[in-house]
Amino acid sequence: MKFSESWLRTFVNPPLAARELADALSMGGLDVEGIEPDRDDWIFTTKPTPNRGDCLSIAGIAREVAAVTGTPLNPTEVKPVRTALTDRLSVTLEAPQACPRYCGRILRGVNAGAGTPEWMARRLTASGIRPVSALVDITNYVMLELGQPLHAFDAAKLKGGIRVRYAKAGEQLTLLNGETPKLGKGFLVIADESKAVALAGVMGGLDTSVTGKTRDVFLESAFFSPEAIAGKTRLLNFASDSSYRFERGVDFAGTLAALERATQLTIEICGGAAGPVTEARAALPPREPVRLRLARVERLLGIKLDGIQVSDILRRLRFEFSVVEGAFRVTPPSHRFDIAIEEDLIEELARIHGYDRIPATLPVASPTLLPLREGKRDIAAIRRLLVARDYQEIVSYSFVDAAWEADLAANTEPVALANPIASQMGVMRSTLAVGLVQCLVQNLSRKQDRARLFEVGRCFMTEASGDYRQPLRIGGLSYGDARHEQWGLKGRPGDFFDIKGDVEALLAPVTGEFRPAGHPGLHPGRSARIVIGGVDAGWIGELHPRWQRKYDLPLAPVLFELDYEAVSERGLPAYKETSKFPPVRRDIAIIVDAGIGYRELLEGLRRHQPAIVVEITLFDIYRGTGVEEGKKSLAFRVLLQDTRKTLTDAEVESAVSHLRQVLQQQFNAKLR
Fold it and tell me: Where are the beta strands (DSSP E) in 491-569?
């Protein structure tokens, strides 16, 4: 909100210069965004928090200044205007919960063409409102002065009495800004006997607006509940000064005073005669007393305030209170919608007492080490390991585009958001791959030809029972060369096996199995499931060519994703005797069908390996000259060792011969 210093000083006049006044307001918790000179005046710009709708007026800010500085408050005296007419319009509240108070009166014989006084125009301009006409400017002026939005109808254009009701389905109303929204049942409207004439709490209608020819006016001053107005401007895609105040809470006790003030100014500037006030009232928001205990104040603030200090602050805030059984019983005023619990009052005490007067004291506590399971890795250790392997961490939104989710996870029924922040962020992710690929696309558009990324985050999915599951996962992506460009190594693109090595390092000392499997986002022949202890722990693979083309990627990145729970378990260290005797190496070269996988062969050997065999590793694969079509040559390194003695040739040959027999009998292998 913007306002001039001179206007504020008509309500409260502390012995402070303009900048000192701004500092005092800031120390009191009211954010002063700026202060700038304007001829012989100063213009303040404040930004109250959403819970402080009472500070969206000169009167409200003056209350704050008076409370913070202890200066007397001199509010504008509003006296009831003498009525010279008997004319009135009936008012019916058909939605009393949304509009529990409505005041209005008729003024006849006004001069709508009268000019706005220079002092009023100057104050409106300083507050960022362009003067329009005297009648409109008066309603805007009272709104800024007292915080109560008002509206002036051309009484000659109204048919019958006023009805406050919800809009009918499909009902339309042309507003002052020229918009004609199609209203639904959730919109509150002001209507006459024939149609809606204003969108309650938001904007008046064009058909009943005042013009230069208007002679009779119906002035409206009402209280609309914040719940009835909140969110409506978002649906309409425009806002107004009125809705900004009503959705934060307007002082319902000042409704009539604002109407009298507007009537007073209208008669002074435009002339005319006023009729009696018509008021319709229902149950207004209750002001429930809040209990305030001095012991609780000391515990939360860390300072001791006695009863005299607390009473003084409450009086400066204009709160009504009494002392019952050693505790304060405080009734919030009608303009303070943010006071509901004891902690709200304690915050007010701290604010007025002065945050700068609360000493900074270190907490006194005995440090206690939290238990740390040795058999479980925390997420920080996993992050460090990936960073050490040349990955960079990203943090992406959990909200993603439904099209990306369908492409990379084949998820046609993701968890949808009821109120997305953007159309392309309408669903919750079920895989981290979406954020990783999006980040890669952004990096490529900025001429980055190599990217190694990882993310740790939760994914969201619906169970068959209808419940939601939010597992924590670790995802990674590698694109471009396997190593940074340098003179000592020849550049080559990173491939499936490079990333497989990273995953194996991440899982160590646990050994995972990589089983060929399909995935909707991955290349059909270059993807695998990661299995740990017989349980699926994730997947790895190259991006599907279809998505590579769709997202305009020159190369296919390799991605992986793991469940944190599976990766975090690593088992307790166990002692194993180290042999003092030399190992013996033997190589076994075989020819098998090309369709037999390495993992199948290795598992078969390990199931039947003698006790003295400590390691079996594949070190060579060959297809080509000398090997018939449909076959492949594999070479295994076998290490043999005993912890008690040096192995004899006979023992070694017996063990190796046994392994050859396993290969020949189970896999129809031929020795080379």
Answer: 513-516, 522-532, 535-543, 558-563
498 membership: H or E segment, kind and range: helix 496-507
Which pair of tokens denotes residue 97?
């919960």
Q: Give residue 211's identity as a one-letter amino acid code.
A: T
Helix, strand, coil percentages, rounded to 5, for the chain: 30, 25, 45
| Residue range 328-350, pLDDT digits in tens | 999 999 999 999 999 999 999 99
Cβ contacts of 529 within 8 Å, gap of 6 or more: 514, 515, 516, 517, 536, 538, 539
pLDDT in tens, 32-76: 888 899 888 999 999 888 899 999 999 999 999 999 999 999 988
Name the residue among 484, 378, 387, 477 with its Cα closest to residue 435. Answer: 477
Listed in order, strand segments (DSSP E) in 200-335 are: 203-204, 216-223, 273-274, 278-281, 290-292, 320-324, 327-331
Residues 149-178: pLDDT tens digits? Answer: 999 999 999 999 999 999 998 899 999 999
Question: Given the DSSP bridges, would you call strands 162-166 and 91-93 parallel, antiparallel or unpaired?
Answer: parallel
Q: Alpha helix locations (H) across 101-161? A: 118-126, 134-146
Q: For residue 112, give the nearest of 186, 178, 210 by alpha carbon.
A: 210
Residues present in the chain in total:
672
Q: How far apart are CA 330 and CA 186, in angstroms?
A: 35
Q: Which residue has the tokens 């619906």?
A: 462
Cα separation, 505 vs 510, in Å, equals: 9
What are the structure tokens assigned to 88, written together?
């009135």
According to DSSP, residue 182 is labeled B
The pair of three-digit structure tokens given for residue 224, joined into one six-digit string: 């609309």
Q: What is the pLDDT of residue 421?
A: 87
Listed residue (74, 87, 91, 96) closest to 7, CA to CA? 74
Following CA atoms 398, 399, 403, 408 in sequence, which dihedral angle do they give, to the nearest 10 degrees?
A: 0
pTM of the model: 0.64
Buried b (16+ CB within 10 A) or exposed e, 395-418: ebebbbbbebbebbbebeebbeee
- Smallest CA-to-CA distance from 476 within 458, 451, 513, 497 is with 451
